[in-house]
Amino acid sequence: MKFRFLIENKTEKQGIIAEHGLSIYIEAQGKKILFDAGETNLFAANAAKLKVDLSDVDFAVVSHGHSDHTGGFPMFHQLNPTAPVYIHRNALRVSYGTEGGPLDKGGVLDQEPCSVRWSDKELKELADQLLFTDGPVTINENIKITGTIPFAPDYKPTDYFYCYEGDKLVQDDMSHEQCLVIREPEGLYIFSGCSHRGAISALNAGKSMFPGEKVAVFVSGMHLYSATKEDRERVIDEIAGEDMDKVMPVHCTGIDAICELKSRLGEKCTIATAGDEYLV
Q1: In whole numbers, what is the pLDDT of the chain averaged over residues?
Q2: CATH code for position 177
Q3: Domain around 17
């Protein structure tokens, strides 16, 4: 198993550029995988600097339908026009974030959508590569995609994203978010983009793909930057109780939660940045 961060919110590598987004290149179980493609084409520029050949990717996974995870896929199509791209069937609906919290608590709807921003031309070009998911997908006996992440008890979706159902604006249930799960001899590797349905929901969904098996590594945006201290502590308690070999809080986790996870887990918590490579 080897994986490298092509895009993350931060970087410590000379010549590697960070942006608000996520893209991870993975080699595992004889497959080369792209998990998300960041906000722009920077993932491809970083890949070239890191000597990652995106034309060799066997398949790609879209974690969910937000622009900071999908913006680079038109470029991926140019580099690799044949690799399947697994994307949830609800991921292409238009959605918006808010400024200042949920609309019913004084938030204001953003003018620009936060959803996939492919042009009609780009979508047409990508169409033959898109494989739409809903429930779990088995790539092979050791690689699975969760499809829609079920809610863990007492978890609900991030409450400041909205989409239209006809003419009615409703809260986005984030049903289009999914995890990639890879089984290795040492345990499961679970990759989650933002965990809008809750980091514990994502973790549980990943575990359900291979019931009873140990989770070795959890790589996840946890969307805790706007969470209350009480909610952060709850998530961290549950993650610590899982006794994983490694937890990598990335992207939208938030600096407070990252610091608290590092303080709690010590060497079991790795703070990854764009350009970092991990070989297991």
Answers
A1: 96
A2: 3.60.15.10
A3: 2-279
